[in-house]
Amino acid sequence: HYPPVCNALEADNGALRDAILYHLQYSCGSTKKEATQGELARAVMLAVRDLLTERMLATEKRYQQHNAKRLYYLSMEFHLGRTLGNVLANLGLTTLLARTMEELGVDLEEIREQESDGALGTGGLARLAACFLDSLATLDMPGFGYGLKYQFGLFRQELVQGYQKELPGRWDTEHNPWLISRPDEVFAIPMYGRVEPSRGRNNRYAPVWQDQKFVLGIPHDMPIAGAGGKTVNTLRLFSARSADAFDIQIFTANDYFQAIRHQLFSESVSKMLYPSDVDDQSLEMRLKQEYFLVACTIQDIMKKYLKTGGEISNFAQNTAIQLNDTNPALAIAELMRCLVDEHQLDWDNSWDITRATCAYTSHTLVPEAYEKWPVQLFEKVLPRHLQIIYEINHRFLHEVRLRYPDDENAPTRMSLIEETGGRQLNMAHLAIIGSHSVNGVAGLHSQLLRDNVFPDFADMFPERFSNKTNGVTQRRWLYKANPPLANLITSAIGNEWIIRAETLSRLDEFAADSQFQKQFAETRNHNKRSLADHIMRVTGLVINPDSLFDVQIKRVHEYKRQLLHLLYIIHCYRAIIEDGEPPQVPRTHIFAGKAAPGDPAAKLIIKLINNIGQVINRDTRTRDMLKVVMLPDFGVSLAEKIIPAADLSEQISMAGTEASGTGNMKLAMNGALTIGTRDGSNIEIMEEVGADNFFTFGLDADTIEELRTENSYNAWDYYADNPLIRRAVDCLDSDMFCQEEPGLFRDIFASLMYEGDYFFHLADLESYIDTQQQVNELYTHPASWRKKAILNIARSGKFSSDRTVMEYAETIWQLKPVV
Ligand code: 26M
Q: Which residues carry this modification: N6-(pyridoxal phosphate)lysine (predicted)?
């Protein structure tokens, strides 16, 4: 069973209080009387951090004693959210701290609200990485995150007159109490320069990379505590510093401005997170960032490995590197450079080691998301790495020709270098060739990777390809985010589910129990009231807490089809005002999500959500039957507020576009019912919870593929055949929702009707409306609804990231718990 942690502290109440007061005085230079909320929060976090630091050191010692194999999870993004509440939950300190703060006369909730989200990421890939770190530590596995310490993480979103406005995020990386900076462990990272051929030892060809510029990488460690608090791993984030700042000479050399300029140039490398889903102009900076992460990481791994007495030849037996999408795929070239140039290993040995070490996960089916680097740019920044990539390619294409002698196009299709449209490096090809494992993140996604995206590679290396369906940590997303429900679950089945999510299945027998249902409904009502209060505070809008809460919370992107949801809302609105047909149940539609700053289509969708809300919310004819809310600044903390209050989870991407989805899992785990297409992990959620307990609709991926190849989707057919569809879509051509800015949404109308609509909205709209009708129907039978909701929780065990991480550990990393 889940151990009640930190028993010692529980007994020794005074210790935590003393530690907080100590830090208030000596770390914040303040007193209890004078301290601001911010200073109190800092003192609390530092006191808690001390507990983590002890465990972190003990954990490292344990790993060294066991000479344990280590996993390095390389990711350009980690979306951590707040840390304090999560640490308290995992260490079992929540009650003790609450009591301590009460004694000190401080409101713990206010202190917790002081912490801002660590949002060093844009979307699902970044949050998945954070869930994996939680699971690795909980499973006592030596798994370490490696990323960048951006000065500016993801932008903060405000809504100004319904438009997204981007502001700097609030996460303070400079004075962050969780981060332990280690300036003494600095790494020097070379870039630019040129390669000179020369003869090394034994007359061996030994190219020399010369005249490089150096950027320094400083590591900062964030302790990652697992449940129970026995294991505390780290997330290591690098920040960039100028090499010259450490070289006093340049400042005394009378070239002050030159020195400062060089400093700015270097430090810009970790300045900000690029919203990855946008083609931007700053390609060169992005390339430097990706390389900087990879180079710091490989140096660090190698240094640690050698320091603990490891032999280079055994490197892969002791080290696993997981590449979180292609962003860190350069690790393959950098590891080769390190082995060949710095450790003078021969090529074949180096290549075997590299491939045995690295593994690659793809997270998308969006074609634009597959990274390609212009060869020219690459050559300028990383001349030695380009040579290495040419050599890898040369040898690989030789294999391809031997293997497919009759397929003369195979080498062109599979090459690392694309010759069409300007020479470009294909990073996915590098990742596949240089890894022993390639995986997708849900069953359908992995199949589509094999069949459609990388068919040549799947044919040549079938054993490399596998599926690892995503998961989420139930500790943050249920235990911490939803205490009323978590307590109810524990009172029914005990608390083992916190570390063994599959035991949630014990709830199955409570699904029809009227007493349990009643208590479940109470938790839901409580959460819905809290969310209604929050909505009131943030937007000024009064919503009906007894209405059905219908939520769509995720990045705003055309493929996720927020527009489909909006067309349904418009349909409902017109049915009320024109047909006098109020819906069977009152609904509140709750949206939240950010658009990429460089994605005008997504930004216009945000404006449309807000305008539809404006019009509908103040139309007295809808009374409290229909409301539309958009909450600003979606992120982990807002998700933690919305998810526990959701009745219905919208997962309506066009089939074949959402790699997996993880919000769908969080919502199901909290007892929301899903309305979803047969896409990503929706398919597996439906399999687990049962088709009776899931609302599915729309075309499947095969049918969509067919329509596309036959070129037979025609939006006008659906428009002509169904007057309700026409009535809804026509609103976008009119100024119904943009009286003040006439014609504002005509581009959306055009994208749906004239431009072939890549996302086939209208093909699924009728089926979606019908299914929403079934949702209403069911909601009028509370007992049936609750039973299905409880069954969703009971059968969500598969979607714990503990399960996912165990699968990676067994089949890709060969990683074992170290206890
Ligand atoms: C890039 C350029 C232009 C347009 C879009 C992109 C782009 C799209 C997706 C870039 C990156 C993208 O994916 C990153 C990501 O977060 N993917 C998500 O990963 C999650 C974890 O595996 C999955 O659950 C989500 O389905 C997937 O979208």
A: 666
